[in-house]
Amino acid sequence: MSDVRPGDTPPPTGGDHHAADAPGPTAGWADEERAEALRAASTDWPSSDLTDRDLDDLELVLDGLLEPHPLSVPREASTALDRGTPLALRDPEGTMVAVLRVARVLDPVPASDATGGDRAGDDGAGGDADAVRVAGELVGVTRPVRWSFSRLRATPSELRTRLAVHDQVVAVLTDRALHRADVDDLRAEVAADRAHLLLVQLERREAGADTTAAVTRALEAMLHELRVPSTLTLLPAPARLFDDRHDERLDAIAGVLGASRRLRLGRTGVDVDAAIRAGDPVSADATFATVAAELRAAHPPRHDRGLVVLFTGLSGSGKSTVANALRGRLLERGDRRVTLLDGDLVRRHLSRGLGFSPQDRATNVRRIGYVAAEIARHGGLVLCAPIAPEAGVRDEVRTMVEDAGAGFVLVHVATPLEVCEQRDRKGLYAKARAGQVRDFTGIDAPYDVPVDPELRVDTVDTTPDACATRVLDDLVARGWLTAR
Ligand SMILES: Nc1ncnc2c1ncn2[C@@H]1O[C@H](COP(=O)(O)OS(=O)(=O)O)[C@@H](OP(=O)(O)O)[C@H]1O
Ligand SMILES: Nc1ncnc2c1ncn2[C@@H]1O[C@H](COP(=O)(O)OP(=O)(O)O)[C@@H](O)[C@H]1O
């Protein structure tokens, strides 16, 4: 257990493999008068735009819940960063959240040392050669607003004040729902010394907003069953809270929030949580019906969840034809709302004006992925049929869709180039061979053959309808459609 006293900034938790780079300077929020002065002075300061994940990290640092660490900044932005320069740290909307008074500019952590590629990762570096790390004093200017469950949010100092009336405060920090086994542990611990329970939900951004909100509702339902004096609060949870110094960091945070000690939960509840999410049956002995109901509502069975099927393949391979055939079959079934984002149509509307450079193709495919993910977030089934030649961009789309809580199935329409060229429906292969069309996929532009697609279909010896049946059967086998 940590011996951190309320009001203290937690000590660096030791074992830092970049200790030599530790910035040392302080971090904290300015009062409103100083914040106003900083905002007024900031108009011509260099800025760095932070992601939502960076912001979670920054907020915890400014609140004294995590030790400060150098911040990752694009290398080109760093040329103006002399010692003493104020660097405005802005949220994605452009609001200045904090000011970093530059003390030192450091090289990135070598990739082999970095604990993650994420900018919000351990030391905000990730070995990115295009970024440098900047260390210095951090002054918070505008606290990020979090609009969900505001009744459960409090600053650490507000919490400490609220909890100060209790002799004993036992903290539990969790990123998941709690079940009967957890509750038994809790009841024993809390009842034994008549402690007040401080339950802190760590909101993992990568779990998705819908899931973290369901965990909050499930925790409230659990507290209703538990019936002990308690306070539930929510805390953003950047990735580095969960690295190999996880326990020390959580102990320190519990201390700063005003807890006398932290209780570590057993593993049983993890399995119950996973089973409910997977749609498996869970006995009444394992959890409470009210808790399970909240989680099940956020994790419906696959056949009720959104799904994106991305057909990828060369021009003329048959993506559009197979996607249309599949759409017809799905319309016949009638149990799914279907949207077809066909390559040609997308280029006429969503991606009008984009060409076929690698950058424009990536933008085109990302746009398709973004729209598909939003449709799938609401339970829709989306068929997309762009060439999507780059494996990395296809992976990005997968992540976007999965972050939206939906499923992603990659179908490689694996028609050989010779066959596509023979078909040459639009005469483009002939033009590409003649040099009249440049950067044509498969001729003078690359196509990354998918290494590990969920499904590969061959259109050479198979009719479009038979191809659609193969995809349909695969979706049934994976649980994305019910068997008929
Ligand atoms: N240079 C070049 N390379 C490839 N394709 C070209 C090119 N120029 C035009 N076209 C026509 O555009 C269609 C491919 O667009 P996509 O949006 O699917 O491509 S990508 O995913 O952005 O790479 C593709 O249509 P499909 O045959 O339906 O795939 C082509 O007809
Ligand atoms: N099994 C099959 N699946 C899909 N298309 C096929 C098949 N067999 C022949 N074709 C023909 O191949 C062409 C594929 O064109 P299209 O679907 O527009 O490809 P893409 O969308 O990949 O550019 C169509 O003319 C289609 O009739």
Protein architecture, described:
This protein is of the alpha/beta class. It folds into three domains: 19-140, Sulfate adenylyltransferase; 150-298, Rossmann fold (3-Layer(aba) Sandwich); 302-477, Rossmann fold (3-Layer(aba) Sandwich). 36% of the residues lie in helices and 18% in strands. It is built from 15 helices and 15 strands. The chain has helices at 32-41, 52-62, 156-163, 180-192, 209-226, 246-256, 268-277, 289-298, 319-333, 343-348, 358-377, 391-403, 417-423, 428-433, 464-477; strands at residues 27-29, 47-49, 71-74, 86-90, 96-106, 131-140, 169-174, 196-203, 230-236, 261-262, 307-312, 338-342, 381-385, 407-413, 455-457. Strands 1, 2, 3, 4, 5 and 6 form a six-stranded mixed β-sheet that branches. Helix 5 runs antiparallel to helix 8 (289-298). The longest helix is centred in the last third of the chain and has 20 residues, at 358-377. The radius of gyration is 26 Å and the shape is flat. The model is unreliable at 1-23 and 113-126 (pLDDT under 50). Adenosine-5'-diphosphate (ADP) binds at residues 313, 315-322, 343, 385, 423, 425, 459, 462-464, 467.
Strand content: 15-25%
Give the name of the CATH superfamily of the largest domain. P-loop containing nucleotide triphosphate hydrolases
Oligomer: single chain
> Ligands bound here?
3'-phosphate-adenosine-5'-phosphate sulfate, adenosine-5'-diphosphate
Helical/strand content category? alpha/beta
The topology string of helices and strands comes to EHEHEEEEHEHEHEHEHHEHEHHEHEHHEH
Sequence stretches where pLDDT stays below 50 over 5 or more residues: 1-23, 113-126
What is the global morphology?
A: flat
Q: What summary fits the major beta sheet? A: 6 strands, mixed
> Between the first and last Cα atoms, what is the distance in angstroms?
56 Å
How large is the count of helical segments?
A: 15
Work out the radius of gyration.
26 Å
Annotated CATH architecture of the largest domain: 3-Layer(aba) Sandwich
Q: What is the fold-level CATH name, i.e. the topology of the largest domain? A: Rossmann fold
What is the total domain count? 3
What is the average of the pLDDT values?
89
Helix content: 25-40%
How many E strands?
15
GO molecular function, one term: sulfate adenylyltransferase (ATP) activity
Keywords: ATP-binding, Kinase, Nucleotide-binding, Phosphoprotein, Transferase
Pathway: Sulfur metabolism; hydrogen sulfide biosynthesis; sulfite from sulfate: step 2/3
Family: Belongs to the APS kinase family.
